[in-house]
Amino acid sequence: MPVARRTTDIESQPAGASAERTLESLTERAYRLIEELIVTLQIAPGSVISEASLSARLGIGRTPIREALQRLARERLVVVLPRRGIMVSEINVRTQLRLLEVRRELERLIARSAARRAGDAQRQRFRAVAGAMAETARSNDDIAFMRSDRELNLLELEAARNEFATGAMTLMHGLSRRFWYIHYKEVADLPLAARLHANLALAIADGDADAAAAASDRLLDYIEAFTRATVTADA
Prior knowledge:
The chain is mainly α and about 240 residues long. It has 2 domains: about 15-90, Winged helix-like DNA-binding domain superfamily/Winged helix DNA-binding domain (Arc Repressor Mutant, subunit A), CATH 1.10.10; about 95-235, GntR ligand-binding domain-like (Four Helix Bundle (Hemerythrin (Met), subunit A), Up-down Bundle), CATH 1.20.120. The chain has helices spanning about 10, 15-40, 50-60, 60-75, 95-115, 120-140, 140-160, 165-185, 190-205, 210-235; strands at about 50, 80, 85-90. It has a 3-stranded antiparallel β-sheet with strand order 1-3-2. The radius of gyration is 21 Å and the shape is globular. It starts with 8 loop residues before the first helix and ends with a helix.
């Protein structure tokens, strides 16, 4: 009597499930790579790009590239030009200041929520990020700062547990990182920025919602001052 073959999880799924997962993975990879090219100015503002050129450059098929570009368009890092292609969005200080108006309110909400809702393991991670930021303030290490900043942003969103705030903030991250990357060497006080981030992380770790909101406001005060200072630096 033949032994019945055990059906694997993959085999029990619809035929297109594996292909769909692969497409999602490639789309996420395409998004990450293109966003990095734009944020780090390897593709300059105002450049016109195409699905075909990006597909050849990254070695990824055009369908994942198209999906990634649609996401980047929602985040305003690219602009779709009918019959002309896709253009990397220009950088504008006034636009950045309007973004900060919204970001300030959202950051305060997220800081409060994270302070109230973070679990014990997350609070330990906030303390670790605060320690990393304090070290960055002493070493003035820009790469370490950028990595810790990204980690803090993602940890706040995770701890806040508000999918609507997360969705809104995600739309701003790329624009904010690109603006910082362009100007931080000219006008940023990196040790001060690191200390402000560390204070925010510690307030959240302590579960003090009011202190976290106040720390968030102080951080955004600095970011707004930094943004306005770029106008003078470019004059």
